[in-house]
Design goal:
8 helices; single chain; 5-stranded parallel β-sheet; alpha/beta
C-alpha cells in the first residue's frame, strides 16, 4: 500500500530517477514546468469532483491527468513528434502461446499499429543456443521485417544478445560473442547475473567471468552491457541479483546498465 504522509506526490516522477545504484541528475527547469502543469490540470479536475488535489493525485484520474499533460507537452514541441520506446520487447519461438511464437505479430503491433518509435528486442535466460527462446538469427530476422515496414532513418528495432557466460567453458562463450557480432548487429549484450548452474550466479566485476565478458564486449565494439537486477525470477539466486559495484566501476569506455523490469 502506498505511504500517505500528507505530502502531495505525482503518480510518476517527472525527471531523472535512480534505482539506488547511482545519484540521479538534477531536475531540469523543463521537468519542473511539466510538474507544475500536471498539478494545475489535476487541481482543476479535483475541484470539479469536490476532492482535494492530493487525494485526486492518488486515483487513476490523477495518473490520467499526468499522462495527458505529458502527451500535450510532447506534442507541443517544434517537431510535434513523440518518441515512445517500450522498456523491453520479447517474442518466443519454443514456449508460450501460438500468438507469441509468430515473430510477424510483433512488428505488426509495435510499429505501424502503435505509437512506438523504437523498440528493444530482448531475450530470456537460457543455457545457450539449444534452449534459447529467441535465437539471435530469429531476432535478426525480426529486425529485418521491422525495417521492411518502415522507410528511411535508423532501425526502429534494437537487439540485445543475451549471454550465459557461467554455463560451459568461458572461452567458448567469448567465441560465440565474436561470431554474433561478426554476423549480426548487436546493440547491447545482456546478462542475467543471478542465473547459473545449480542456482549459482556471478558478479559483473568477477575477474574470472564478469570482467572478461565486459572487456570482450568492449573490444568487439559493443559499448552497452545490460545486467538484469532487482526482480528475482524463478531459479535465480538472490545473492547475485542485488545492486553492486558494476555500475560504479568504469571498465575502459564500456558502459554497464542494470535493468529492472
Amino acid at each position: 500500500m502506498a505511504r500517505d504522509d500528507g505530502r502531495e506526490r505525482l503518480p510518476l516522477v517527472l525527471g531523472p530517477v535512480s534505482n539506488g545504484e547511482f545519484l540521479p541528475a538534477a531536475t531540469s527547469p523543463a521537468d519542473i514546468r511539466l510538474a507544475e502543469a500536471v498539478l494545475e490540470r489535476a487541481g482543476a479536475a479535483a475541484d470539479r469532483l469536490g476532492l482535494d488535489r492530493r487525494r485526486f493525485l492518488q486515483t487513476t484520474g490523477g495518473m490520467a491527468a499526468l499522462l495527458a499533460t505529458v502527451n500535450v507537452a510532447a506534442c507541443s514541441g517544434s517537431s510535434g513528434h513523440r518518441a515512445v520506446s517500450p522498456g523491453g520487447t520479447y517474442h518466443v519461438h519454443r514456449v508460450g502461446s501460438p500468438d507469441l511464437r509468430r515473430p510477424d505479430r510483433l512488428p505488426a503491433r509495435r510499429v505501424p499499429g502503435s505509437d512506438t518509435t523504437v523498440a528493444l528486442l530482448s531475450d530470456l535466460p537460457s543455457t545457450g543456443e539449444s534452449d534459447d527462446p529467441i535465437p539471435f538469427d530469429d531476432a535478426e530476422g525480426t529486425r529485418q521485417l521491422v525495417t521492411g515496414l518502415t522507410s528511411g532513418g535508423a532501425s526502429r528495432l534494437l537487439l540485445q544478445n543475451v549471454l550465459a557466460p557461467n554455463f560451459g567453458a568461458l572461452a567458448a562463450r567469448l567465441e560465440e560473442m565474436t561470431r554474433t557480432v561478426e554476423t549480426g548487429q548487436v546493440d547491447a549484450f545482456k546478462v542475467y547475473t543471478a542465473w547459473g548452474p545449480g542456482g549459482h550466479g556471478f558478479y559483473l566485476d568477477d575477474p574470472a567471468i564478469g570482467l572478461p565478458v565486459v572487456q570482450h564486449a568492449h573490444d568487439l565494439g559493443v559499448k552497452v552491457m545490460c545486467g538484469h537486477k532487482g526482480l528475482t525470477l524463478l531459479n535465480f539466486g538472490s545473492t547475485w541479483n542485488q545492486p553492486r559495484a558494476p555500475t560504479t566501476r568504469p571498465i575502459r569506455s564500456a558502459s554497464i546498465r542494470c535493468s529492472r523490469p
